[in-house]
Write a structure and sequence with these properties.
The protein is mainly alpha-helical. It is built from 4 helices and no strands. The radius of gyration is 12 Å and the shape is globular.
Length: about 70
Amino acid sequence: KYQAGTFTTVPNTDFFHTIPKSQGVFVCICKHADANGRCWPPYSKIKKFTGIKSDTTVKARIDELVKAGFI
């Protein structure tokens, strides 16, 4: 059953071609967002969810999402 805040839409062409390495981080951030779209998952949670090994890589992926305008 659909619950508010459990889905998001992203234009496929923009998302898949602009930030292919950051998709898992984006999904993790969306998964942890509240009803207002705000979230602050710790890097440890993002690393566990995505399989990323370092905080530096998580930060780089988040910076990439910000630069592309997705977050």
